[in-house]
Amino acid sequence: MNSLNQYIIDKSKELNIDICGFADSLPLGNLQDYLIYREKSNIKTEFEENDIDKRINPKLTMPNCRSIIVVGLSYNVDYAEKPDYILKGKLSKSTYGIDYHKVLKQKIEELIQEIKKVVEFEYKYFVDTGPLIDRELAKKAGVGYYGKNSSIINDEYGSFVFLGYILTNLDLEFGKEAPNKCGDCDLCLRACPTGALEGPYRFNPKKCISYLTQTKDDIPISLREKMGIKIYGCDTCQLVCPKNKDIKKSNHKEFIPEITRGYMDIEELLSISNREFNKKYGDMAGSWRGKNILKRNAIIVLGNMKKEENIYLLIPMLKDSNPMIREYAEWAIVNIFFNNCIH
Predict the structure, then answer these.
(1) β-pairing, 88-91 with 263-265?
(2) Would residue 84 count as lying in a domain?
């Protein structure tokens, strides 16, 4: 292995970065047709870079890019408190603790400083905000393979991993793609609540609960009902994955849910001010869309709980200044009444 590669790997370990690999800067040409298909099929999300060429060609982001350092942090913290869910909604592991963008960004900046000690180089780095497809870079770097749920699975840490990458003009040795190890298993496909996993490696993000809890677009009624009591994100397809059993747990204390305990109080979420929300929850990844989106999700949770005694929480929402909140509150009340009439 190239001595600079080894130096970067050693330093990443010292900095408590769990995963580190290296990819070339050639275009991700094998994805072009698929990205065009997603666009034509209207399953591209509003969070993605619109320019397909930028999504697959590193040199359109950094013209002198020669190599890409891919890093990852496990967020699979050993935490299993089970609250009573009477008036609480679930959070996915991805938003348990401090916003991973901040945590991983700092790790990448520290790694860059370590590399600068031995070589001058040019770089650009991204954590979930860059135009390139980070999962494809991770696959190319050999740090993981695609599961049938389209998550990247690492042999040591499983799929609960945050990814980031550094575009560089360094001459590095590149990793080899890891072989796929899913075999005949299709547990994730069968477990997905909304059918977002339309087949092996065929993921429709617009049906995914993780996406639905973040979008500002209208959520179809048929999908609202499948969101259950999830306030932000969804871990279902990863929790059933055998590759996430008996793996190395995360030692990053930043991802322990000290404030939320893995859930949010619905009553609080419906009444808290923007200022109070930002003060208490502003450091978690799920806060990036603002309070109103999570408030909407809490209303959907109440609608899905179908308990008549919760209607008192929804009635004030019918007069909310935000038309989105009013609309979802109306749906939730109708859903509760309809359920109780049937039974």
Answers:
(1) antiparallel
(2) no
Task: Clarify whether residues 107 and 229 are in a common domain.
Answer: no
Q: Mean pLDDT score of the chain, rounded to an integer?
A: 94
Residue 222 · residue 304 · CB < 8 Å: no
CA distances from 327 to 82, 173, 317, 320, 323 (A): 32, 55, 9, 10, 6
| H/E segment holding residue 277 | helix 274-281
Confidence of residue 92 (pLDDT cuts 50, 70, 90): very high
Q: At 50, list the tokens.
A: 């619109």
Count the domains in the chain. Answer: 2
Catalytic residues: 128
Global pTM exceeds 0.85? yes
The answer on 279 and 158 residing in a single domain is: no
Look-up of token digits 């899913």 = 182
The verdict on residue 303 lying in a domain is: yes
Please enumerate, as own/partner, the contacts of 277-283 that have beta carbons within 8 Å and a separation of 24 or more. Answer: 283/98, 283/99, 283/102, 283/259
